[in-house]
Amino acid sequence: MKLVIVIFAVSMVFLCAFIGMWTIEASYTGEFANSVFSSAALQNKTVMVFVPHEDDELNVAGVTIKNLRDNNIRTICVFSTNGDCYPAEARISEARESLHILGVPDDDIYFLGYADGPASQKYYDKYTAPNDEILISPKTGKNATYCVLGKRDFSTQFRAAPSTYSRNCFKRDVQDIILRFKPDIIFANDFDKHLNHRENTLLFEEVMGDILRIPGNNYHPEVFKGFAYSTAYTAVADFYAPNILSTQKPDKTELNNPIYDTDIPQYEWDKRVRLPSNKTCLTRLLEGNTLFAALKVHRSQDTLKRSPRIINGDEVFWQRDTNSLTYQGTIVVSSGNGNKLNDFKLVDVMDLHPRNVGFANYLWVPSLADKQKMVKVIWQKQQTIDKVVFYGNIEEDSRIEGGVVELSNGFQVQVPELNSAGRATVLNIPPQKNIDWLKFTIKKWRGERPGLAELEIYGGESEPELFNLVKITINDDFAYDYWVKDDVKQVALGIYKFGNVGNCELKIIKGKGHLSGNTLFLDSNYVIVKAEAANNVFDQITIRRQTLWAFWKLKLRQSLERKKLKL
Question: What domains does the chain contain, in order, with CATH numbers?
Fold first, then answer.
């Protein structure tokens, strides 16, 4: 009898341990919150996500789409191609199902209907083809836009006829869909190793430049560019951790040129814009995660396998300002192509196809024989100016090493050597009013092709940012429901800020502990910390002590899930 009791007792211990292993908190259950997507600034706004392929919406902005829709912010998703290197029926069906999971209604999903992949002719892509050359898809044999499954391509829907596959038609359709909806915010993919991603971003930027230069234009959306590959599809597979990690700096082997932070040399990693995750996309296991549910719908791309790379604690972008006064000015140059100075493009290429492509044809370069080496921006209406931004040479063998800015009121200021890698050199000046023109003259240079990719000029009252964010970080990762081991006594906190935020105050609103600067000293197992700034901008996180047993159970469950999903 005693043996039976012992066996029963031991069995119960193992049973309880087994049950306990399967009752870990897979979801983030702490009392965490953030104000950025629920702010009054975003109410009644429209957002557009513009990407080439069905699944790139998730690579670029999946969590952000979910956050926007959870706050009833209209989010229009536009796909420039049908992804028809695979069956278009599959790609379009998957995109619609995936976006429905994130809360986007079918009426806000648009397909421009262009071909995926290269063209049949010697012009292998829309970007480098002559403007009106009609291209043919070698995969489908089509030369005009189309859609399937009861959806119509954009041109057929609004013009009652498809567009031919050509550079000019593509640009016309992109411009028309942007100006039809005039989104307040646009998220778009940026340059990476994929041919269609490259042509999509370069043509999008070309279109944005065209829109901003329309005489009298007063439409200035906030534009955020993100990478579909290096910070998502081919990023580090780092999902399985006790606390969700933020997007890591791209693997150098995935970049077009590994000497830079990203595929766009001008982008600095420390200046990225970071947006927080959504509560339903914060889990310690993939199953039950809303973004994972949306990703696994893209069966033709086997995107499920990419989930550990794509799902992070933030989504990262680089903001492109559309408010430069150069777009509404007349540009006069002493030599060279002045159109390069306000075309909205930081990079350009002659050939999209090489894996590691060299940037070319992206600069205003005055002739070396030109004794003036000057650009002048003239306005019909007087302007206030307080900042000039120069984007120079990416390559190191040529650069502007000095110059002078002159204004029509007689004000002058020296310009230092421009930053390396074409990164922004910002010249802040005391506000100058009633300005008719600005002139920049190159005084010192090196190399054969010193020049400017973009010249941006700002002044006057700027529009308030639509995204105003504070976010508490731990080890530079966005923190939400954060686990620490049960012997941890203190945690170093950081604060990430973006937009019109100002000063920020940390305080404990629940649990026992105290703050010394940004260091939290824990006196209880459950503490809620809040960061508050002006205008109801806030972030709130939970920090919870957990036993080693809890960490071990989580690690085992994560390992079992990886095996089950064959990750």
Answer: 6-26+466-565 (2.60.40), 325-458 (2.60.120.260)
